[in-house]
Amino acid sequence: MALRQPICLYSLAMQQKVQQANKQEFCTTPHLKEENIKKAFVDAFNSLIDNKAEILANYDDIIAQITDCKGQEKEIAKIDEDCASIEVLIQKLIAENARSVIEHGKYNRKYSGYVVRYNELQARHQELNNDIVMRQARRNQMKAFIKELTKQDRLLTEFDERLWAATLNAMVVKSEHEVVFRFKDGTELPWRMG
């Protein structure tokens, strides 16, 4: 069965060569045979299965720590309060200007200051929301990986494409005999190709 999921195959040497000014350099990534890649994956995944109990022992705590969003949520709540305060200040400034004419330059400086601060807070709010979404996605990936690892009660005897797609983010080729498997839980497993 041919691998259907793309493999991230690159080497550090190739990256350096591509960045060189001499455009006549060729890709130096070694050629790897599919059967060797499959065997390496089976062996690497089996090493995870051998250490499954150790890996799973504290995984819930690790996931909770890595994907904790309480700090971001607290900061978002503070930003929301600050934005609401700025909105009140802007409304008061507009009302004051309507009751008694405020010098135009003074009004614009105050108004602009409020708007700049409000926009800074909103930008930070968006950054925090993006961070929360990334952490939640990371948690989902890690839990899916653990689910797959937990289901695997015995060592693999042959390549499983479904398992490959469900657990692996990338395979990085360091050399003809050395690769790194990057699993979806964040584990990076260096592996010597036999």
Structural description of this entry:
By secondary structure, the chain is mainly alpha-helical. The protein has one domain. Helices cover 64% and strands 9% of the residues. A three-stranded antiparallel beta sheet has the order 1-2-3. Helix 4 runs antiparallel to helix 6 and helix 5 packs antiparallel against helix 6. The longest helix is centred in the middle third of the chain and has 48 residues. The radius of gyration is 27 Å and the shape is elongated. It starts with 11 loop residues before the first helix and ends with a strand. The N terminus is likely disordered.
State the low-pLDDT regions, or none.
1-19
Number of strands: 3
* H/E element sequence: HHHHHHHEEE
Helix content: 55-70%
User: What is the residue-averaged pLDDT?
Assistant: 84
| Structure class | mainly alpha
Radius of gyration: 27 Å
Strand order of the largest sheet: 1-2-3
Contiguous helical run count: 7
Q: Tell me the distance between the termini.
A: 21 Å
Proportion of residues in β-strands: 5-15%
Domains, number: 1
Please describe the biggest sheet, giving its number of strands, its sense, and whether it closes into a barrel: 3 strands, antiparallel
- Identify the overall geometry: elongated
